[in-house]
Amino acid sequence: MEIFDYDNILLLPRKCRVASRSECDTSVELGSRSFRIPVVPSNMKTVVDEKICTWLAHNGYFYAMHRFGLDNVRFVRDMQAKGCYASISLGVKRSDYDTVDALVAQGLAPEYVSIDIAHGHADSVRNMIEHLKARLPRAFVIAGNVATPEAVIDLENWGADATKVGVGPGKVCITQLKTGFGTGGWQLSALKWCARVATRPIIADGGIRSHGDIAKSIRFGASMVMIGSLFAGHEESPGQTVEVGGARFKEYYGSASDYNKGEYRHVEGKRILEPVKGRLADTLVEMEQDLQSSISYAGGRRLMDVRKVNYVILGGDNAGEHLLM
Ligand SMILES: NC(=O)C1=CN([C@@H]2O[C@H](COP(=O)(O)OP(=O)(O)OC[C@H]3O[C@@H](n4cnc5c(N)ncnc54)[C@H](OP(=O)(O)O)[C@@H]3O)[C@@H](O)[C@H]2O)C=CC1
Ligand SMILES: Nc1nc2c(ncn2[C@@H]2O[C@H](COP(=O)(O)O)[C@@H](O)[C@H]2O)c(=O)[nH]1
């Protein structure tokens, strides 16, 4: 089995088919909607809040609101009252079932629901998918997180409309250190193996460190990419602003950190500081432009043309050129 990650793969250009990168279409469909780029900021407290989600929805981007300390029923009502789609996250506890029932009781139906737990290959997720499909049949259900093809097959068979792949590659993740499990260091090849069996969209989650990693994720089978750290350091990011030596930073902490949980129990996340780097809207535009370039290097016009390119693995035992033949 080939093992590689974002930092030791490069994609190989094909003959250009556009006169300008502006001809390259970065949009992607997820569920019944189309979004400007295949990128969703992580559903974490220091990455998104209600204001950012509203802005993303109004401006053609996909979002998934976090599930921590949030009244999901009010959130769905407010978003839809503002003319936005509603995309929420749920866990698998009694209170999450109560949320679904409360939504139904109030005649509210979110367009997207992400089941967001650490070990998503679990009967608890199967049960929640079944509950969602019974109670909110029109919701597009994203289930995760998982790390293996077996898990993707199970989640799809249980009714997930999309799966989220990535256990442990996140920048504030310490799952691997604490448990010995995960896809950190080989997330891209884990994605490749999962994508081989997937029949529905995969969201690659965690480990993206530069914009080129988005195109690499698409190449290896992702339909969308979830990103935390690259989004946590904006002026509008919800994390607290901290000054160190005259420089400004935003705090970024894991959802399974004691900072998020409020207690030190089953901690699998840490807190770091991300340098403040400007406005979110500018980063999103830059991502779109960089992806347009990626598509042009791929000799294509549309996002999925990136899937057609060959690649090289740099260094290590698997080094070499990999041709699509
Ligand atoms: N993508 C990743 O690599 C990871 C992401 N996270 C994020 O942290 C947040 C908290 O996650 P999580 O702790 O799952 O959420 P919750 O605290 O809501 O736990 C969800 C449920 O799953 C159980 N559970 C959690 N981990 C395991 C496990 N390894 N084996 C069996 N049961 C388990 C919990 O019970 P109990 O606590 O009693 O075991 C609880 O019933 C989420 O946002 C998640 O996405 C966390 C770790 C890894
Ligand atoms: N193991 C943990 N993973 C976590 C935690 N909180 C969030 N996450 C995952 O990280 C990605 C973001 O990764 P990044 O590399 O883009 O920063 C996020 O979407 C979650 O899947 C955690 O506490 N522990």
TrEMBL record:
GO terms for molecular function: GMP reductase activity. Its EC number is 1.7.1.7. Residues 5-308 form the IMP dehydrogenase/GMP reductase domain. It is an enzyme of class 1 (oxidoreductase). Keywords: NADP, Oxidoreductase. The active site is at residue 173. NADP(+) binds at residues 202-225. It catalyses: IMP + NH4(+) + NADP(+) = GMP + NADPH + 2 H(+). InterPro entries: Aldolase_TIM, GMP_reductase, GuaC_type_2, IMP_DH/GMP_Rdtase_CS, IMP_DH_GMPRt. It comes from the Bacteria. Coiled coil: none annotated. Pfam families: IMPDH. Catalyzes the irreversible NADPH-dependent deamination of GMP to IMP. It functions in the conversion of nucleobase, nucleoside and nucleotide derivatives of G to A nucleotides, and in maintaining the intracellular balance of A and G nucleotides. HAMAP family: GMP_reduct_type2. PANTHER family: GMP REDUCTASE. NCBIfam families: GMP_reduct_2, PRK05458.1. Belongs to the IMPDH/GMPR family. GuaC type 2 subfamily. This is GMP reductase. It comes from Verminephrobacter aporrectodeae subsp. tuberculatae. The lineage of its organism: Bacteria, Pseudomonadati, Pseudomonadota, Betaproteobacteria, Burkholderiales.
